[in-house]
Amino acid sequence: MKAFEVNTQDPVVVAIAADADAQAGEREALLARAMGLKWKRKSSQKLRRGRRPSEGLAFVARTVDGALAGTVRLWDVATGDGRPALLLGPLAVEPSLKNAGIGKALMLHAVSEAMRLGHAAILLVGDVPYYGRFGFSAEKTGALSMPGPYERHRFLALELVPGALDGAHGTLKATGRKSASVRIASAA
Ligand SMILES: CC(C)(COP(=O)(O)OP(=O)(O)OC[C@H]1O[C@@H](n2cnc3c(N)ncnc32)[C@H](O)[C@@H]1OP(=O)(O)O)[C@@H](O)C(=O)NCCC(=O)NCCS
Q1: Deepest of 110, 128, 153, 171, by most Cβ within 10 A of its Cβ?
Q2: Could you tell me if the CB of 72 is within 6 A of ligand 1?
Q3: How far is the CA of 92 from the centre of ligand 1 (A)?
Q4: How confident is the prediction for the chain on average, in pLDDT?
């Protein structure tokens, strides 16, 4: 667990920890507060629905009193030409704690853990002015696409292994482990 102090009006100590399935309701409530319900309608959600996050790549930030301060998760996908990659999102921070470094800490932690676990590239749909500061750009996503509507200029990638996305093309598909409810339904 990594702990750090964030820069709000009163100093708040926040720690990043692994997420757990039991925290789903709490996480969804934070997502609704941070971004309304639009995250559920995004094309990225098509690649997440019915899947579990990539092993070891779901994180929360909590204040010392245990309140959820932020969330980020990464998902296993493959490019249309079969290259394994991660899809990042949603990233969200509790509105009252915005702009204090929690999103940045979650991003840096997520990227470094993805790299440590040997992943080659991370993709996401998000704001260039924010994600650009972590090295994401649209440079390698021109021939890639999301499985549904999205704004092309916001489709970004970060190579963890240089050249991992050279020539990558086609529509992303989900490759992650199925969630328990999907496994039960398909076994029935
Ligand atoms: C976007 C979000 C995750 C950033 O996390 P955070 O902890 O609030 O922000 P950080 O402390 O990491 O970064 C703050 C900096 O990012 C900038 N920033 C925040 N959101 C931004 C955005 N959408 N686009 C561009 N810059 C942004 C701030 O202006 C600030 O800039 P500065 O360092 O130059 O002062 C958070 O504000 C949030 O949950 N927003 C609503 C949900 C959302 O839109 N998520 C997806 C983002 S595309």
Answers
A1: 110
A2: no
A3: 9
A4: 92
Task: Give 82 Cα–ligand 1 centroid separation in angstroms.
Answer: 32
Compute the distance between CA of residue 98 and CA of residue 68 in angstroms, rounded to an integer.
13
CA distances from 43 to 66, 122, 157, 174 (A): 32, 16, 16, 12
Tens-place pLDDT, residues 51-68: 999 999 999 999 999 999
pLDDT reading at 171 higher than 80: yes
CATH number reported for the structural domain that contains residue 164 in this entry? 3.40.630.30
The count of domains in the chain is 1
Does residue 34 line the site of ligand 1, with CB under 6 A? yes
Domain assignment of residue 108, given as a range: 2-187
Find out whether the beta carbon of 102 lies less than 6 Å from any atom of ligand 1.
yes
